[in-house]
Structures are given as C-alpha cells and as structure tokens.
Amino acid sequence: MGGITIIDLMTDPQLFGKQFRGPSFEAWRVLLAGFYGLPLTDEQAVVWHELTGRDKPAGPHDELWQAIGRRGGKTQIAALLAVYEACFRDHAPKLSPGEVATVMCIAADRKQSRSLMRYIVGLMESNPMLKRLIVRQDRESLELSNRCVIEIAAASFRSVRGYTLRAVLCDEIAFWRSDESANPDSEIIAALRPALATLNGPLIALSSPYAKRGELWHNYRRHFATDSPVLVAQAPSRTMNPGLPQRVVDAAKDRDPVAAASEYGAEFRSDIQSFIDPVLLDSLTRSEPAVLPPAPGIKYTAFADPSGGGPDGFSLAICHRERDTVIVDLVTERTRTNPASVVSEYCKILQQYRIQVVGGDKYAGQWVANEFSRHGVRYNYSAKNRSELYIDTLAMLNAGEVELPPVDKLARQFANLERRTSRSGRDSIDHPPGLHDDLANAVAGAVVSQQKDRQCITPIFGQVRTL
C-alpha cells in the first residue's frame, strides 16, 4: 500500500475521507502534512506558523511533540497515525526473517490505552481493505498480515523493551505517572528511541500540557519555533477542533481560569512546580542500612499515615535526633491489608523502639486512636496538615538536617510531590493525581515532630505537647 500519504488517508473517500476530510480537521491535516514533509499552500503555511511557530516545513521530521488542548481530537489522530504507520509505510525490507514491526501506542494506564485501541480497531474494521489485513486480534494488539503488529501498552519503562518499532504513539504523555519512578516519561522515551532506530520510525507524542516539567515541556522549551528535526506544535482545543462549543470552554474558565488555560488553551501551568529536588534527596540518603535497629539510650519518635486497607498504604516512620540531624531509622507500609492487623503489627514495632506515643492525622476519626489504644499506644493527632508538614520538612532538608533511609519508593514519593499555588496565592503540597505519598507523609510527620521547641502534635484531649 505504498505511495499513499497521510493526507490521502485523511481525504480519500475510499479510505477515511468521510471522517477526516471536513473543515474541522484542517489544522490537523496541515500539521501532519508538514510533519511528513508534504508541501503546503500559502494559506496552509499561515496555519502551520500558528501551530509550530515556524515559517515553513523542513520535514520529514523524526519526532512530533504536540501540546493540544482537551477534546482537540488527539486520540482520534493517534489512532489514525497508528493505522497509517502500520498499513501504509513500507517496513518489511528492513526486517530480519521472523521479525515483526510494532506500532506501539502508549497511554497513562491500561484503561486509556484500551480506549485508544477501540479507535484503532474501529478504523481498521470500517475499511474492508484494511480489515482483511487483520490476522489476529485481542484486547491489546492487532496482528496484521504485513508483518506488523499494533500494540497498546501502559506507561512503564519495563513494558517497552525488546521491540523493533515501526512507530511510537505516546498518548497524554504529560500525565504519565508512576509510583515506580519520579520521571517515568523520560525513562520510557529513553528506552524507546533505540528500538526505533532499525526502521527509522517516528516518535509522536500527543498531550494536553500540564506543569513545566517532563518530556513534553522540555521538548517544547528546546524545539518550539526553531528549525529542528524535532517538531513541536501547540494549539488550543478549538483550533484543532472548531466543533467544540465555546460554552464548554467558557464554563471551564468560570470554574478555574488557570486550569482552563491549560486544559483548553494548551498553556503549560505555572502554578504547579516540583516540590523537592531529587538531587537533594539523594545527597541526604544514607547508603545503608534501610532500617536502623533500636539502640539503648535513644529517644525515638513515630508518625503513622493510616489507610482503610485499599490501594493507599498504611505507613509508619520512626526517627531520632543526633545533634542537629534527624535520623529516619525506619519507614514501612502495608497495603490491601486489614487495618486492625496493621495496627497490631506496628505496635509491636513501636514497643521495640520503646515508643508509647505515635503521631498521625485524623484519618477515620476516633477509630485509629482507639485501635492503637487497645495495644497500649496513644495516638496523637497532628496539629499540622500534610501540606504544612511537607513545607516544614523541606526547610529541614534544605538545611541538611535530615538523614533519609535508602528506600527507593520513599525517594520517588518525595520527588513526585507538587507545589500548587492557588488564586489567593497560598501554596499547598500534595501528590499528583493517581499517585500516593503514604511513606513520604509518615516520614515528614516523624521528622517535623523531632524539631526542637516546635509545637507539632496535638493530643486527642486538646492539649498541646511541645517536644
């Protein structure tokens, strides 16, 4: 099927012209034509400049990074590009016997990747010629008779190795989050590029923008409006999808102007920043051991972050002070476990460190305090919320007053924390949507509780305890 361009695919009524030929996809046609090195008219060159900041195409390009507003048609276009790269680009001559080319479509999680697969299957099955190419189909892959496979995957650097890639489609890359890594997008992209080298395939990322960090932001900052093999485009939702009602955008602006500017205006958010520098965390982390055993003559402090037994962890941290440094002796968590049994287990650990009082937040009201009390441990409510604990902890980290244990998950949770600035100018610290901070919260509470002359724990009965 060689000789068919991406514009042919979008405009030919025998292919997908009925879906992509209309005026609402004109901006997409201009962008993709320029990406693949196709000529543009003078009128299209104006649209090209609006999208890319460049005067004229210099393609074909190796990579395409797109910061596009929500409901701008990104998933439909990702599906179209997957079909184009799998069915209309010649790859067989470069394959070794038995080798297959893979068009990999990666999304933030499996639910989103399967949504993309439904679009792909819909396009393939809507055209009798393409439907005949399908040899085998399951929920996560389409095997084609031309020695190509279209496969979906969740965003994990472990799932993308070992392939010969015809092309990679990265869906909503600005929202790739992982408890396994503080920089999952960077690690995944680094793993993908060598796999694209054999077939010289393109890397295409489509996403609504988010904070000024990550691969989308870095490529935007380096390559937008520059003469580079890496093409970067930025456009509001209604530029790419004029059919999106203006009232939807206006309603979003009324609710939250800053969020709407990002979601529909395709602007990177300046109100969200990384909270802690991973380099700082690494410099404060001891090499070993992960757990320091209890020692005589030392006064230990503990803090717990309870959960109800679901995916959130029920965590515990223990620390002590040595001169001007707070040493985190232990941090641990339990997930998907009966909370009462976790309390029982943690109380045994607390007894080993001679701890009779544990701090924590007001999760589940009186239940947590009562459960600890059953085992002879008093549970004191923290006078600070988690955001305040993180802010105090950051000051101590910046001053070099904390020693952290070598626990990778703890470091990732700290590194993933976000500082958000509200319209009133007030800062808050929290984990990104979909991630967790149970270990980090427990450590922050334990560390802050060791500050000298700091009122940090409010007992259940309303008194204030100064450490």
Task: Walk me through the structure.
- There is one protein chain.
- This protein has 467 residues and is α/β, with parallel strands linked by helices.
- The protein has two domains: 6-270, P-loop containing nucleotide triphosphate hydrolases (Rossmann fold, 3-Layer(aba) Sandwich); 278-466, Nucleotidyltransferase, domain 5 (2-Layer Sandwich), CATH 3.30.420.
- It is built from 18 helices and 19 strands.
- The chain has helices at 6-11, 17-20, 26-35, 42-52, 74-87, 110-126, 128-131, 184-196, 214-223, 237-240, 246-255, 257-263, 278-283, 339-352, 366-374, 386-398, 408-416, 438-449, and strands spanning 63-68, 101-107, 134-137, 141-144, 148-154, 165-171, 203-207, 230-235, 272-274, 301-305, 314-322, 325-334, 357-360, 378-382, 402-403, 418-421, 427-430, 455-458, 465-466.
- Helix 3 packs across helix 4 (42-52), helix 5 packs across helix 6 and helix 11 crosses helix 12 (257-263).
- The longest helix is centred in the first third of the chain and has 17 residues, at 110-126.
